[in-house]
Design brief:
The N and C termini lie far apart (about 75 Å). The protein contains three helices and no strands. With about 80 residues, the protein is an all-alpha fold. Helix content is about 85%, strand content about 0%.
Length: about 80
Amino acid sequence: MSTKKEDAAEYRIRELERKVAGLQRQVGVINARADTTDKRTERRLRDLEIKAAAQHVPQRKLAEIYDLTPGRISQIVRRVA
């Protein structure tokens, strides 16, 4: 038979486990947001590099370097301000 102390301890353990699960969920959301922001920033930097390089290197050569299609390079050069 369980004593009141054991019941209280089990209750506290369950509550702490519930709180930890909630915190893990929050951390997962925060990490997902950070990853999205990082990817967006990396793409923006890459696009700016491509636009700068396009002034000195033919777009076909850039397409080979960045493993993109020449059409995509052209689109980036026109779009990025």
